[in-house]
From TrEMBL:
<dbReference type="GO" id="GO:0055085">
    <property type="term" value="P:transmembrane transport"/>
</dbReference>
<dbReference type="InterPro" id="IPR000515">
    <property type="entry name" value="MetI-like"/>
</dbReference>
<keyword id="KW-1003">Cell membrane</keyword>
<dbReference type="InterPro" id="IPR051393">
    <property type="entry name" value="ABC_transporter_permease"/>
</dbReference>
<keyword id="KW-0813">Transport</keyword>
<feature type="transmembrane region" description="Helical">
    <location>
        <begin position="259"/>
        <end position="277"/>
    </location>
</feature>
<dbReference type="Pfam" id="PF00528">
    <property type="entry name" value="BPD_transp_1"/>
</dbReference>
<feature type="transmembrane region" description="Helical">
    <location>
        <begin position="69"/>
        <end position="88"/>
    </location>
</feature>
<feature type="transmembrane region" description="Helical">
    <location>
        <begin position="196"/>
        <end position="221"/>
    </location>
</feature>
<keyword id="KW-0812">Transmembrane</keyword>
<comment type="similarity">
    <text>Belongs to the binding-protein-dependent transport system permease family.</text>
</comment>
<feature type="transmembrane region" description="Helical">
    <location>
        <begin position="100"/>
        <end position="121"/>
    </location>
</feature>
<feature type="transmembrane region" description="Helical">
    <location>
        <begin position="7"/>
        <end position="33"/>
    </location>
</feature>
<keyword id="KW-0472">Membrane</keyword>
<dbReference type="GO" id="GO:0005886">
    <property type="term" value="C:plasma membrane"/>
</dbReference>
<feature type="domain" description="ABC transmembrane type-1">
    <location>
        <begin position="63"/>
        <end position="277"/>
    </location>
</feature>
<dbReference type="InterPro" id="IPR035906">
    <property type="entry name" value="MetI-like_sf"/>
</dbReference>
Length: 285
């Protein structure tokens, strides 16, 4: 009986993992080989769904938009997050208050954030246009989410604001684990602030940043909620990331097989990105 006790403890978690992760993943791969409505139509088509995904060019273009979107958002997250973590890693009066305030965007639901910023950027009664008119920066209402010049960058800025606390919190936790003796030794050796940052601080918190980089990249590569609620992929296809196209294929056009094949491709892209990150960081070490 004692030999079985460990299995009793891990059993519930293992069953939940299989039911919520492994089974949906395998079922999605299975669907990708069929032309189906998930009810009474199951026509085996083999690799035709995968061929159609790459042959029409639309998915490849959206993959490029998604990579561009992810690269900008993640880069900004790390610049802002590490900078704020450095500022918050100090013993000053009121620093706990600022730590709490700056982490709030990550705690807010994505639906709420999307609807709030959609209202702020409304071309008719939005606060952004109203403020610009008061400052004399704009005479008429700018369609921030409906103009091809502004839609992509507007969505990117909202996603940057939403996601930077993840990097900030992880970087702050890593900084607080670094011994103060290292900083004092660097100061004695005559290192300036820039040298201390690149040669002492970053190498010390690199393992945490590497894990955060993978998580943040995968999260925003497959992101859906904010972009869909703000623009639904428009105007045209300027903000049409792959997750929105997968949704449309499944629930607008009822091409569940093609949507599943797109999801499998996205899974492997995320897997490749994480592997490349690991290989690059390991080689750098």
């Amino acid at each position: 009986m004692k030999r079985l006790m460990p299995y009793f403890f891990i059993g519930p978690a293992l069953l939940a993992l299989v039911a919520l992760v492994v089974y949906p993943l395998l079922y999605g791969v299975y669907i990708s080989f069929f032309k189906t409505n998930l009810a009474n139509k199951w026509d085996f088509v083999g690799l035709k769904n995968y061929i159609s995904v790459f042959s029409d060019g639309v998915f490849v273009k959206q993959l490029g938009v998604t990579l561009k979107f992810t690269a900008i958002v993640v880069l900004a997250h790390f610049i802002i997050g590490i900078f704020l973590a450095m500022l918050l890693n100090q013993s000053r009066p009121g620093i706990t208050f600022f730590r709490t305030i700056l982490v709030l965007p990550w705690l807010m639901p994505e639906v709420v954030i999307a609807l709030i910023f959609k209202w702020i950027m409304n071309p008719l009664y939005g606060l952004l246009n109203y403020g610009m008119q008061l400052l004399g920066l704009s005479e008429g209402g700018v369609s921030w989410l409906g103009d091809t010049k502004y839609a992509f960058i507007s969505v990117v800025l909202v996603c940057i604001w939403k996601g930077y606390p993840l990097v900030m919190v992880n970087a702050l936790a890593a900084l607080q684990s670094v011994s103060t003796d290292i900083y004092e030794a660097a100061k004695v050796d005559g290192a300036n602030k820039i040298q201390t940052f690149f040669r002492i601080i970053l190498p010390s918190i690199k393992p945490v940043l590497a894990t955060t980089l993978i998580l943040d990249t995968v999260w925003w590569f497959k992101h859906y909620t904010i972009v869909y609620l703000m623009t639904k992929g428009g105007p045209g296809s300027d903000t049409s990331i792959v997750s929105i196209e997968i949704y449309k294929q499944a629930f607008d056009y009822f091409n569940f097989g093609k949507a599943a094949s797109m999801s499998v491709v996205v899974f492997f892209v995320c897997l490749i990105i994480s592997k490349l990150y690991r290989r690059f960081l390991d080689n750098e070490d």
